[in-house]
Amino acid sequence: MFPVWLQAGFWGLVAGGALLIGAAVAFLAQVPRRIIAAVMAFGSGVLISALSFELMDEAYRRGGFLSAGVGFIAGATVYTVANVVLAHHGAKHRKRSGGQQPSENQQGGSGVAIALGALMDGIPESIVIGLSLLQGGAVSYVAVGAIFLSNIPEGLSSVAGMKKAGRSTRYIFGVWGGIAALSGLASLAGYSIFQAFPPGVIAATTAVAAGAILAMLVDTMIPEAFDEARDFAGLITVLGFLVAFGLSKIGG
Q1: d(Cα 22, Cα 49) in Å, to the nearest integer?
Q2: pLDDT tens-place string over residues 78-115
Q3: What distances in angstroms separate CA 62 from CA 144, 177, 234, one per listed residue?
Q4: Short-list 220, 59, 196, CA closest to 140
Q5: DSSP state, 55?
Q6: Is pLDDT above 70 for 1?
Q7: Residue 82: DSSP 8-state
């Protein structure tokens, strides 16, 4: 049996690796935008369900409503402020598959901003995986599965947009490969750093991650889903929610 800290890094890397799967599909194939949007809607539903029934429920159980609520708002606030800053530097449409992403010629420094934005989107999810191992040393397979399923459309949509903005192959796979690796490190950190903290701190941290994830969904994933999938976006999102809900009940 591998040590728990190593398991944390491994599962974070697995979930983050889904970004590379999505990136490779978008790079090698011309996927229609409506298909990308449909997959994005499904991934949004998966994450909404996971943060509701896995993250916030666990945060409430460990620390009560006050700790969970404060952490939830704090996570959303910090993410929103950081996202606004990066948006002004060219990262606003980092998960859009159309021609919304600016090229480096159109906005200097946008490549760095997009990379930082993508990293910011993935860190809270990865930390959650590490925190889940604090519950008796067993990872939450529901959390890993939900994040994995949502990361595929994230990589798919973002890389489709990067290609249209003229980003290089080195840039595209450098960004997503780096984020996949850092996802493993963030998960490891989530376990290693917080294992000595009391339940209230862990609860608040879990809620912070949940707030950041929900803000990320509304700011970056849902606009792409509803802009292109149109009348069917709501139904597809509901299906994604139901799949993650089912996983949580089977896992429970």
Answers
A1: 21
A2: 999 999 999 888 888 888 877 788 888 888 788 788 88
A3: 20, 34, 32
A4: 59
A5: I
A6: no
A7: H
